[in-house]
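In the laboratory, one determines a bound structure by crystallizing the protein with its ligand and collecting diffraction data. In a computational setting the workflow is compressed into a single prediction: the sequence and the ligand go in, and a structural description comes out. We illustrate the idea with 4'-phosphopantetheine.
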Amino acid sequence: MKHLAIFPGSFDPLTVGHLDIIQRAAGLFDEVMVAVLHNPAKKGTIPFDERLLLIRKACSGLPNVQAAAWDGMLADLVKTTGACAVVRGIRDMRDFDTENAMACLNRDLLPGLETVFLPTLPQYGHISSSAVREIASFGKDVSAYLPESILNDVLPYLK
Ligand code: PNS
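The predicted complex, in structure-token form:
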């Protein structure tokens, strides 16, 4: 049986920190599905479909990584796909608190649902999609924070 892991997020936009987690998850699991989901707490800047295309482009060199959009709860996506785990990156203790609560809630929704936390590499620990959007909105350089392969596609959305 192949082990599928789901890496869910808003990816608005995908950052170098996200891409690092995807690459590391791809080395741990047979298949990784990068899933674009709605975060009810976030408004969203880049159109949903475009985020999906950007992820596919950035991950085109990773044969066991696929991308999908899901308009529902994460637990239902895990159930539908038969995934063995959800992967989330953890930057700091604040992330841990939030993600630990989410992992517990998801397990309540789907008993047995496992969430695997991968510690963010130190060089990416300060990067977030919201910070990238904010810095870019002031016209500053965010190229260090975005995968090079999608940089030119992302920038027009952040102006
Ligand atoms: O990149 P983000 O915004 O931190 O990702 C959060 C996301 C999209 C994974 C989370 O909001 C989510 O799972 N949304 C779908 C609805 C859901 O299942 N919520 C979990 C309730 S505990």
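The first helix runs from residue 16 to 28. Keep in mind that any predicted model is a hypothesis to be tested, not a measurement.
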